[in-house]
Amino acid sequence: METKVEILIIGAGLSGLTAALHFLKSGFPVTLIEKSSYPHHKVCGEYLSNEVLPYLEWLDLDLSSLSPVPIHQFQFSSNDGKVLQTELPLGGIGISRYSLDHFLFQEAIARGCQMIHDTVTDLSFEDDLFSVKLASQQLIKAKVVIGAYGKRDGLDQKLSRNFIQRKSPWLAVKAHYEGSFPDDLVAIHNFDGGYCGVSKVENNRINICYLVDYNSFKKYKSIPEHRLEVLYQNPHLKKIFEGLKPLFEQPIAIGQISFEKKSLVENHILMIGDTAGLIHPFCGNGMAIAIHSAKICASCVIAYFEKGASSRSQMEWQYRRLWNQQFLSRITAGKVMSGILRKKQLTSKFMRILIKYPFLLSMMIKQTHGKPIMIAGEISNELTENR
Q1: CA-CA distance, 299 to 325, in Å (whole number)?
Q2: Which end of the chain is more exposed for a tag (fewer CB within 10 A), N or C?
Q3: How many domains does the chain have?
Q4: What are 66-92's pLDDT values in tens digits?
């Protein structure tokens, strides 16, 4: 069976659903393909910066029903227990991907999004039109395809994306817990080979998500053994874990997380969210970047459809330009900071500098976070002015 659509989004995660809601609000029908069911947990720090709030309000999304936790304080500790704390310049909320993605999914369905639960098996572009084949043997023809399928997928292999050809050393582990932890705080605790984020989400749950170098992790037989032998070397992490009760039967983990540069447009597919690029979790800004990238992409596509004189190549160029303008420096700063944390001697010097000049910690946070997102009309004007 063959179906023809204007806009097709592959992946119904945070960025894919946000883009779908943007198109629907702007009067454009959209079809979304997702291979997983809802709701489900994802490995994520689950902190959302307030920089996205103006945009979520424009999308008519009220997250208050999900009971997110307001967060305004940031704490950082080194492996030897030295600790620093500062106020977050913009602040944010703690909210689980389990709740947020499901909420956006339900909103998209209610507003008319065509949702297909299936897996993309092949994709090609010819004569200015995409042909997308699904596992169910369905064929979809689309004018615009947006890739929002996450950090790593079989589609990356089919598209021969550069980053997928190389192994990545990073492994991420996440679980929810119950116990005592400040509502208003997001903490990053360094340990040998990685760092761990801790913060509250809805329903008084505590989300703990950490990133570790696989070469460091594989010396141990299991996640619990690695936690006891490595994470507990940081006294703050030891105290946190010993005071909490796990709410998952087992932590969830994903490997091969790549922070390498990714192509933003691959075979004319516009990549958004983690599919376009990852900022190190140390920066705590991945969710906001995913949402913001969806907005930039949707704005470019809408301008392409509304301005008939625009070519596809102009739309792709505009998307690359705006994405790099918003995120490239942040991602670069995140890589530099993460690189420092991986080296004990540098981390020690780093902490001494921050203790002496605490205002630098706030400046670092600003380097990896953006300003409140402009409303759609302002972006539309920018697209027109820079054409």
Answers
A1: 15
A2: N
A3: 1
A4: 999 999 999 989 888 889 898 998 999
